[in-house]
Amino acid sequence: MEQAEIGIFGGTGIYDSGLLKEAKEITVETPYGKPSDSITVGIFKGKKIAFMPRHGKKHTIPPHLINFRANIWAFKQMGITRIIAPSAVGSLKEQIAPGDFVLPTQFIDFTKSRKLTFSEEGKVFHISVADPFCPELQSSILKAAQAQNISVHKDCTYVCIEGPRFSTKAESRFYRTTGADIIGMTLVPECQLAREAQMCYASVSTVTDYDVWAEKPVTAKEVIETLHKNVENTKRLLTSIPDFIPEHRGCTCAKAFEEAQF
Questions:
Q1: Residues 6 or more apart whose Cβ sits within 8 Å of residue 103
Q2: Statement: residue 239 has pLDDT above 50
Q3: Model-wide pTM > 0.90
Q4: Cα dist. 95→67, 153, 206, 249 in Å?
Q5: What span, in angstroms and rounded, lies between the C-alpha atoms of 2 and 50?
Q6: Is the pLDDT of residue 16 over 60?
Q7: What pLDDT sits at residue 13?
Q8: Are strands 82-91 and 200-210 parallel, antiparallel or unpaired?
Q9: Does residue 1 fall inside a structural domain?
Q10: Is 261 within a domain?
């Protein structure tokens, strides 16, 4: 099995940039079925990095049908201990504008039909996600952003909805009342599965639009256009993060199971 240190979902920016040395494409089988696509593995700044397009290379998998368990397990089998997860989100706050970067520290789950856990019959555990993201990895991302002079909103809450449709105005206004800052469709269960797998995980969200609370109906075309405009900043940020990740993990993510099992 090909090994790597850092896994990136989405692959926005550096996935197809040609920056990886000795790049190769591999296919990984898991007990939970097929991951979203093949995985590209290579060396970047002395670190072995793996990229998986969350929605498939041709963006053919809608958010509610992503095999999150297979994706996380594939990275786990490769020996990956840290996951960086770029994603596109809508803004629920006026001060968080399209094109901005957000580092969520909490989430609220409004998904409906997803397989949320590796816990199954005969294998019961109750993982803590009081603080769902790795603080060490988040610190590395913030240092990278500062080095690249990229502003990042931090200490934010991400509402995860089922999708693939966007919210109604009533739903969007309701999500704002929860105190959440951004809204997306892919964070859950990806982040909590990473915690169950005792892997470090941090999300880097790119704001593509104001959600419909702002009386500006969002379209898929608008989302794609904003992502394309911001791809260079995304690329600069992602390529800088490995410089600030410490060699050894000093967080408690690797001990997530110590108080979770019965």
A1: 138, 141, 142, 152, 153, 154, 155, 156, 202, 203, 204, 205
A2: yes
A3: yes
A4: 34, 10, 14, 34
A5: 10
A6: no
A7: 46
A8: parallel
A9: no
A10: no
3-state secondary structure of 176: helix
59 within a domain of the structure (yes/no): yes
pLDDT one-digit tens code per residue, 19-29: 788 999 999 99
Residues in the chain: 262
Please tell me the predicted confidence (pLDDT) of residue 230.
82
Mean pLDDT of the chain: 91
Q: Please report where in the chains the tokens 């094109």 appear, as a residue.
A: 99
Q: How do the residues of the chain divide into helix, strand and coil, expressed in percent and rounded to 5?
A: 30, 25, 45
What domain range includes position 188? 6-255
Cα gap 146→219, rounded to integer Å: 31
Report the number of distinct structural domains present in the chain. Answer: 1
> pLDDT digits over 139-153, tens only?
999 999 999 999 999
Task: Please check the confidence at residue 165 and state whether its pLDDT lies above 90.
Answer: yes
CA distance 187 to 183: 10
CATH number at residue 113: 3.40.50.1580
Residues 6+ apart with CB under 8 A from 61: 36, 54, 55
Q: Is the peptide bond before 189 cis (omega within 30 degrees of 0)?
A: yes
- How far is residue 93's CA from residue 27's CA, in Å, rounded to a whole number? 40
Domain assignment present for 260: no
CA distance 69 to 123: 15
- Confirm whether 209 is a catalytic residue: yes
- Of the residues 100, 109, 211, 243, only one is catalytic, namely 211
Residues 75/83, Cβ–Cβ less than 8 Å: yes
Whether 211 sits among the annotated catalytic residues: the reply is: yes
Residues 37, 100, 181, 209: which is the catalytic one? 209
